[in-house]
Amino acid sequence: MAAGLASGPSARAADLIPFRIGEASPANTYLAIWMARDAGFYEARGLRLEVVHMTGGRDIAEAFAAGRIDAMHIGLSSVVRANAAGANLRAFGSLSNVIRFALFGKPGVKTAADLRGGTIGISSTGSESDATLTTMLAKLGLSRADVTIRELGTKRLAPVKDGAVSASALNEPDRSLAYAAGLTALVDLAPQQIPWLFSGLVARQDAMQGKRDALTRFLKATIEGNRLAIADEARARAVLKKEIGIEDPKIIDIVYADFKAQTPLNAEVSVDGARAIIEQIAKPDASHKLDDYIDTSLGDALKAEGFYDEMTKKYPAK
To answer: Under CATH, which number does the domain 102-192 receive?
Structure first.
């Protein structure tokens, strides 16, 4: 096994518990999971991790219902929408608690006036690129009625550069690539630190008890992956380079620095970030109770048992 494995149970390959995690898009918010997989932390915790590639949050309810995933890396906006349709999901952790998007215009689109009447690309209906679009447009004095919204999937930089759409919301690494390409950021929310449960770790509510052991193992390994990514910059940069397929060291520097500045150390759920989404996304007749969308009991248990302190000793701040 790789050096730096977590202390705790390990198992032969045949004895590992299958665990499928959905990936909404290959962004730097996923680095904790990539690092944990690269270091063998999931195997050390007795899990055989499988990453299931998905497009945004539109199909998460169906994916959970069909048993295709055990957990999902997705923003809380998708949870709110899915629960309104009866999905009963909960965010039990988070890898980003602020909005990470910038809205980039195609060549020639530099102002709100240029954008009015145009087409904006999102990953999928109900995704964070969809939900946060309302906030970005409001910053420009526009509303959703002023534009046409089009689903593009996770590959949205090329359509903006080519002019296939007027604009799209991009986060790292595409945010840095868009700046490098000379595109205009009409709005950049990343530096503004707006509370938003942007990249949650989500499971079905019934799994919080029925699969609690597997979820706990997953969360422990992911937190250690997060700690390793912060502690070992060289290794984290190498993993980012491999996973996002970018060779430019300057872009990797920016993408890593953004991760390090924004990631919650212990994958904690932000109550303020969750509340901001619920207030904006949940319909008036839907539940607005935090407990109907988040469940912090796994993290609370890890803190109480001293796991966070253990990680701090193993990966001390530099």
So the answer is: 3.40.190.10
Do residues 71 and 218 make contact, with C-beta atoms less than 8 angstroms apart?
Answer: yes
What's the one-letter identity of residue 7?
Answer: S
Question: H/E/C letters for each residue in 84-118?
Answer: HCCCCEEEEEECCCECCCEEEECCCCCCHHHHCCC
13-98+196-314 and 102-192: same fold? yes
Pair 236, 229: CB distance under 8 Å: yes
- Alpha helices in 118-188, H assignment, sequence order: 128-131, 133-139, 157-162, 174-180
- C-alpha distances (whole Å) from 214 to each of 52, 149, 156, 220 are 17, 38, 34, 10
User: Strand, helix or coil at 194?
Assistant: coil
Cβ contact 299:92 at 8 Å: yes
Q: What would the CATH number be for the domain defined by 13-98+196-314?
A: 3.40.190.10
Domain boundaries, the chain: 13-98+196-314, 102-192
pLDDT digits (tens, 9 = 90+) for 202-257: 999 999 999 999 999 999 999 999 999 999 999 999 999 999 999 999 999 999 99
**Amino acid type, 153:** G
Whole-number Å distance between alpha carbons of 40 and 172: 25
Peptide bond into 173 cis (omega under 30): yes
Tokens representing 162 are 């080519």
- CA proximity to 120, closest of 101, 106, 138: 106
- Letter for the amino acid at 66? A
Contact in structure between 267 and 94 (CB atoms under 8 Å): yes
Tell me, what's the pLDDT at 153? 87
Report yes or no: 132 and 99 within 8 Å, Cβ to Cβ.
Answer: yes
The structure's pTM equals 0.91
Q: How far apart are CA 233 and CA 242, in angstroms?
A: 14
Per-residue pLDDT tens over the stretch 121-133: 998 888 899 999 9
Instruction: Round to whole Å and give the CA distance between 130 and 120.
Output: 10
CA–CA separation, 142 and 145 (whole Å): 8
Compute the distance between CA of residue 180 and CA of residue 213 in angstroms, rounded to an integer. 44
